[in-house]
């Protein structure tokens, strides 16, 4: 995220994978792929259908839900809809600096000037409509993301927004300069803790030798993604929440299996859970 950008356009496509126009998708594929055999193979993949409640359906739009090629096709289609449009038509007409960050159907567009951001916000629905897509009404918003007001009477600005599971916010560094940092979004944080709680409850009767490696895998899957500079405290809280849920439900395997924290800490010396670490320094 570039510093100095004062306005953020956060956009999300409604039902992106289900609403892709296959005719336009094939047109984009022909521009990128010259091998007719690959294009025909992709066409067969799209016509394969999907089984829902034991019934085989052949939808006319979208890509096959759960298909291994679906994310690839979606990432071929949307760059033509959004990325190329921003680079070739939008950015040359803007008066200030701007940038685009997109992951699948989620994107943020940063602008230095409010007028530029409002122009993009007004043009997004029209651009997506040309390709048979619609933007999500509640997940698409224009917000201020400049440095917080530093003097009395200055215009207040919204200093946070969520993107890809992180909350991006302004704060001061140890030297007193304004910097952008990131932490796990509250919804993702709560969802992670609830997921560990439900898993420990569902597998409380499994042998300890089976519970331990699976719990380690879940933590190792969480730490590398969220292990970003400034987010270490929340990583530790996720580990502590996993320990708490593990001990709580393990103690309720029977009326005589209660385990105090002292005994549990001794067990953790043998069954050591992964330690969080910072992987990304941005």
The tally of strands reads 9
Average pLDDT, rounded to a whole number, is 85
Could you tell me the radius of gyration in angstroms? Answer: 24 Å
What's the helical proportion of residues?
A: 40-55%
Taken in chain order, the helices and strands follow as EHHHEEHEEHEEEEHHHH
Give a quick account of the main beta sheet: strands, pairing sense, barrel closure: 4 strands, antiparallel
- Which structural category fits the helices and strands? alpha+beta
Strands across the major sheet, in which order? 4-5-1-6
What is the first-to-last residue Cα distance? 9 Å
Q: Detail the poorly predicted runs.
A: none
Overall form: flat
Instruction: Tell me the strand percentage band.
Output: 15-25%
Number of helices: 9
Task: Characterise the protein shown here.
The structure is a single chain. A hairpin with a 2-residue loop joins strand 7 (160-163) and strand 8 (166-172). The protein is an alpha+beta fold. It contains nine helices and nine strands. The chain is flat.
Notable features of this structure?
alpha+beta; 9 helices; 282 residues; three-stranded antiparallel β-sheet; 9 strands; four-stranded antiparallel β-sheet
Give the topology, please:
Blueprint: E1 7-12, H1 16-19, H2 22-32, H3 36-46, E2 50-52, E3 55-57, H4 70-90, E4 98-103, E5 106-111, H5 114-130, E6 141-144, E7 160-163, E8 166-172, E9 178-184, H6 186-202, H7 208-226, H8 232-250, H9 261-270
Antiparallel strand pairs: 1-5, 1-6, 2-3, 4-5, 7-8, 8-9
Helix pairs in contact: 2-3, 2-4, 6-8, 7-8
